[in-house]
Amino acid sequence: MSEYIDQNQTGATIGIVEKQFFSFAAPPDKLNLEGGAGIGPVTLAYETCGFLNQDKSNVILVFHALSGDSHMAGYYDPKEPKPGWWDIMVGPGKGIDTDKYFVICSNIIGSCAGSMGPSSINLETGKAYGTDFPLITIGDMVEAQKALMDYLGIKSLLSVIGGSIGGMQALEWIVRYPGMVRSAIPLATTTRHSALAIAFNEVARQAIMADPNWNEGHYYSGKKPDMGLAIARMIGHITYLSDESMRKKFGRKLQNRSALSFEFGAEFQVESYLQHQGKKFIERFDANSFLYITKAADYFDLARQYGSGSLVKAF
Amino acid sequence: MSEYIDQNQTGATIGIVEKQFFSFAAPPDKLNLEGGAGIGPVTLAYETCGFLNQDKSNVILVFHALSGDSHMAGYYDPKEPKPGWWDIMVGPGKGIDTDKYFVICSNIIGSCAGSMGPSSINLETGKAYGTDFPLITIGDMVEAQKALMDYLGIKSLLSVIGGSIGGMQALEWIVRYPGMVRSAIPLATTTRHSALAIAFNEVARQAIMADPNWNEGHYYSGKKPDMGLAIARMIGHITYLSDESMRKKFGRKLQNRSALSFEFGAEFQVESYLQHQGKKFIERFDANSFLYITKAADYFDLARQYGSGSLVKAF
Question: How many CB pairs lie under 8 A apart between chains A and B?
Answer without folding.
Answer: 149
